[in-house]
Amino acid sequence: MLQATLRFAQTAYASTKRLFSNLFFEDALGVETNRPVALKDLGLAHSDRVDYDPSPWLALRRILPRNEVGPDDVFADFGCGKGRVLVQAAGYPFRRLIGIELSPELHAVAGANLDRSLPPARRADVELVNKDVLDYAIPDDITVAYFYNPFAGAIFANVIDRLAASVRSRPRALRIIYVNPVEEAAVLAAGAKLTREVRGLRPGKNWSLRKSIRMYTLAPPPC
Ligand SMILES: C[S@@+](CC[C@H](N)C(=O)[O-])C[C@H]1O[C@@H](n2cnc3c(N)ncnc32)[C@H](O)[C@@H]1O
How far does residue 99's CA lie from ligand 1's centre (Å)? Predict the structure, then answer.
């Protein structure tokens, strides 16, 4: 009985959220980011790769206040999908923004979404890269790295190791934002410290935890 009530509450919550999202964000901005996409339907399935599912529209705003970003900051969404988070991040004063996405189809949708929702001058600050993250040379000026559980296992560990190496070779504070942080152990093992957490007000403790958003800071060791 309790399980059935919880399932009902979760379904009702998800439908209301989709309606709200369509009304206030998708339609208002002229974008399509809501529909999930399975990588197996695109011929890209792999046990460590995670399917496309968008971050909640307010995720970035909840974890990263606008006044904590300056004109020297650079944002990257690893596994940017249809570009929803980039649309949000473009409203912050980032110097430049990067979205790395494996799927050519999702990469193209992200481009169309950004073209429709950003003024041309701001659109020019966003670079979309259509690559497997394993083949992507991570720039060493990124200061905010965003992950909505895009990949796991060896792929995630590889990216975190390279980000940590980039902080050592070009010392700076790197903030890592991780939604549904299933591979948190790899982030902490790289020396990052948990600095903030927000949790969804979801019906059900496990669901709430799965949707939690955490921020970690990776900084070079003091000399
Ligand atoms: C959970 S979705 C997150 C989408 C977006 N970041 C957001 O928050 O709305 C994960 C995305 O990571 C992408 N992805 C999975 N493995 C990848 C890889 N090896 N390289 C680049 N992107 C990858 C998927 O195609 C998918 O679009």
Answer: 10
